[in-house]
Amino acid sequence: MPSETIFRRHRTIPTGNIMHILTAGVDEAGRGPLVGSVFAAAVILPETFDLPGLTDSKKLSEKKRDALAEMIKEQAVAWHVAASTPEEIASLNILHATMLAMKRAVYGLAARPEKIFIDGNRIPEHLGIPAEAVVKGDSKIIEISAASVLAKTARDAEMYALAQRRPQYGFDKHKGYGTKQHLEALKQYGVLPEHRRDFAPVRNLLAQQALF
């Protein structure tokens, strides 16, 4: 069962009955890393579901996230994962690229939600659906928690795939963040097409290389 800090939204109709409404949760993963896409997921859950232990993906082990991701996909009324590429991040900046990924996730849903709850303090423009930003929503609203799990597991899958192609960078370990291992690999092996060239560590390295 969800923790007490996680709640659901319902609407009371004139007869006094409670009718389940289609509520979507939206969250992102991968804003901070130096490489790869930024992902977003949108999830609509049914009125009843069995997702034991579901909470903010950052509080879950990788094994638990992977298991929950499969359960969410099986039980959701609708779900969709989308991304913005490193090229789009460089063109738009990371904030606007994240908003674009969120819009793509919402528009990709097979069912249209009546209300959307988005983790954070910003809402993508021109969604066309009533939306509310919820700070720390991934720990408060179960649909956002579900979206956080799908976005995070999709982002990690991209890093594992990149690690298979470029094992010397250690993407399977640091997931693209600017760790010492990653920065040393950048200096030794160079910048990849998947790296975010507008992010300072990558941009600075390219500028240094241009001097020689």
SSE arrangement:
Layout: E1 11-12, E2 18-19, E3 23-29, E4 38-44, H1 62-75, E5 78-84, H2 86-92, H3 94-107, E6 115-119, E7 131-134, H4 142-165, H5 171-174, H6 180-189, H7 200-210
Parallel strand pairs: 3-6, 6-7
Antiparallel strand pairs: 1-2, 3-4, 4-5
Number of helices: 7
**Helix content, binned percent:** 25-40%
How far apart the termini lie comes to 59 Å
Please compute the radius of gyration using only Cα atoms: 19 Å
How would the global form be characterised?
globular
Order of helices and strands: EEEEHEHHEEHHHH
Could you name the CATH class?
Alpha Beta
Named CATH topology: Nucleotidyltransferase, domain 5
**Main pleated-sheet profile:** 5 strands, mixed
CATH architecture designation:
2-Layer Sandwich
Spans where pLDDT lies below 50 across 5 or more residues: 1-18
Q: Taking strands numbered 1, 2, ... along the chain, how are they ordered across the largest sheet? A: 5-4-3-6-7
Name the CATH superfamily classification: Ribonuclease H-like superfamily/Ribonuclease H
Let me know the average pLDDT. 91
How many DSSP E strands? 7
Cofactor: Mg(2+); Mn(2+)
Pfam families: RNase_HII
GO molecular function: manganese ion binding; RNA binding; RNA-DNA hybrid ribonuclease activity
Protein name: Ribonuclease HII
